[in-house]
Design brief:
The structure holds two protein chains of two kinds. By secondary structure, chain A is an alpha/beta fold. Helices cover 36% and strands 24% of the residues of chain A. Chain A has helices at 44-51, 86-96, 101-111, 115-118, 127-139, 157-174, 185-191, 208-211, 214-221, and strands at 4-15, 18-29, 33-37, 58-63, 69-72, 145-149, 177-181, 194-197, 204-206. In chain A, the strands form two sheets. A six-stranded mixed sheet of chain A has the order 5-6-7-3-8-9, sandwiched between helices. In chain A, strands 2-1-4 form a three-stranded antiparallel sheet, covered by helices on one side. In chain A, a hairpin with a 6-residue loop joins β8 (194-197) and β9 (204-206). The termini of chain A are far apart. Chain B starts with 7 loop residues before the first helix and ends with a helix. Chain B contains twelve helices and no strands. Chain B is mainly alpha-helical. Chain B is globular. The interface between A and B is medium-sized, with 27 and 24 residues.
Chain lengths: 233, 259
């Protein structure tokens, strides 16, 4: 069995009097694709931010020493009118992390960013291109853990498919650990090997087949799970 | 000891100030602190007033309140959660009121608009060192600044200390204003930081070009301002001519963008 890359013990996250996450403990192993699911307001994004040490928390979050994190946020409050080309943005990260010049080219080709796209102002990128740009940004520095927060929110289905295929190939080919927040249960079923449910009650964790059962989902979302059923004429 | 050569050394220092202002202005514009920058320049007024009263070098007094005030603005924003415009409202009013109350009437115009005086060797060297420090700082920090403007959160995930970068930038900004006080006074010192950057923003979407065009615009504004003041305005301060020329270039950039 792969070794533990992340260990979370009795974590509590609160904003003032409002407790968002309480008594959360779980582990992730190298190479896992761990999906985090739960209703709105259950603290999925907040958990990712705590894992990235962006917000204060109580308890312990311990990454193994070899963990190098990359983060793709759900949406970014970035000013798209900034006079920045995609290349400027990626080069800025490469410079801060003192990466070699070839790494930027390598990541760009992995993600499918053409030279033309790299020279495009970030304000002129489409939703899908911008998401790819954020993935490329996350991949610079050769992370071995990727944290994805709703990576395909606001994308059309085809682009969504491309993004998940990319995510899957990164995990498969590079053995990356992926921690994925998603509302799309079919995606979770397809790609995740472990699922962490966050809800008002006790958090639960297990393989998708054990967690994504109608009874569990009804309890989690406090409503019966509905499935699309195709009716032939 | 004053340097010989009329206003030659003053012009040389003004050009270095323009270079620093053009670069700093780019990030001030991106960080949406155009109004905040106006406040920061006014923070020098109480210090200038006290220095005039005590008959010490005005830039020493102005610099002292400028840096203390900058730290105050940073702390107010960080600790109270006040928005930038609220902080501006509070600090701007207080600094202007204190400055107006303590500055001797006969020195008030100089404090507000600057004055063309011969420059001492020490003043020239310190001014030069300050502008070179600003230029170097912007070049060394430009990637961190760009990332923290793009997304403070993403910047933090790669180890950029966004709060520290903000403070450092405010201090570099204040230092630029301090050098500009001599030429522009507290009312106009920030104008040469903002106008060239606003002009450059109309003309390019590329960061390196943005920095370059802003610097060139600031340099041209200062050169033209000195020339225009010497030939036409003949004022004891060069600030108004520089700002008028800078605003003219901004107007031209709007025409260029439309075409």
């Amino acid at each position: 069995m792969a070794h533990s890359i992340l260990s979370v013990t009795k974590v509590k996250i609160a904003f003032g009097d409002r407790v968002v996450i309480q008594d959360l403990s779980f582990e992730a192993h190298a190479g896992d694709c761990l999906a985090v699911i739960g209703p709105n307001g259950s603290g999925k994004t907040v958990l990712l931010k705590a894992l990235l040490n962006l917000i204060p928390y109580e308890g312990e979050i311990r990454w193994s020493p070899e963990a190098r994190l990359g983060y793709v946020p759900q949406k970014i409050a970035a000013d798209r009118q900034l006079p920045l080309r995609l290349r400027d943005l990626l080069e800025a990260k490469a410079t801060v992390l003192k990466l070699s010049g070839t790494e930027l080219d390598q990541v760009s080709s992995e993600v499918g960013l053409t030279r033309e796209l790299l020279d495009t102002s970030i304000g002129h990128l489409s939703g899908g291109q911008f998401q790819k740009a954020l993935i490329a940004f996350a991949l610079l520095g050769q992370p071995n853990v990727l944290l994805f927060d709703e990576p395909t929110a606001s994308l059309d289905e085809l682009t969504e498919e491309h993004v998940y295929e990319l995510l899957h190939s990164l995990q498969r080919d590079k053995g990356m650990t992926v921690i994925l927040v998603s509302h799309d249960l079919s995606v979770v079923y397809r790609y995740a090997n472990m699922v962490l449910c966050l809800s008002k009650g006790k958090p639960c964790m297990g393989p998708p087949k054990d967690i994504l059962t109608p009874a569990m989902l009804e309890e989690l979302y406090a409503a019966p799970a509905r499935y699309y059923r195709h009716i032939e004429d | 000891m004053n340097l010989p050569g009329g206003h030659g050394f003053l012009l040389l220092l003004a050009l270095f100030f323009a270079l620093a202002a053009g670069l700093v202005g780019c990030f001030a514009l991106l960080k949406r602190m155009v109004l905040a920058s106006d406040v920061i320049s006014h923070l020098a007024l109480p210090g200038l007033g006290i220095a005039f009263l005590l008959k010490i070098n005005p830039l020493v007094g102005g610099g002292a309140t400028l840096f203390l005030g900058t730290l105050l603005v940073w702390q107010l924003q960080k600790k109270t959660g006040l928005t930038t415009d609220a902080t501006i409202g509070v600090v701007f009013a207080a600094a202007l009121a204190i400055g107006a109350a303590v500055t001797p009437r006969e020195d008030l115009i100089e404090a507000l608009f600057g004055e063309l005086q011969h420059i001492s060797l020490l003043g020239f060297i310190l001014g030069l060192a300050a502008t070179l420090f600003v230029v170097l700082s912007v070049f060394l920090l430009k990637d961190r600044l760009a990332l923290s403007v793009f997304s403070p959160e993403l910047a933090a995930t790669i180890g950029v200390n966004v709060a520290r970068i903000d403070l450092y930038f405010l201090l570099v900004f204040s230092l630029t204003v301090l050098v500009g006080l001599r030429f522009m006074g507290t009312l106009l010192a920030s104008a040469l930081i903002i106008l060239p950057a606003a002009t450059a923003r109309q003309l390019t979407d590329k960061l390196s070009h943005f920095l370059l065009v802003s610097s060139i615009t600031a340099l041209v504004s200062v050169l033209a301002g000195f020339l225009f003041n010497a030939l036409v305005f003949r004022l004891s301060t060069v600030g108004p001519a520089i700002v008028i020329f800078s605003a003219l270039l901004f107007g031209l950039s709007l025409v260029r963008r439309r075409t």
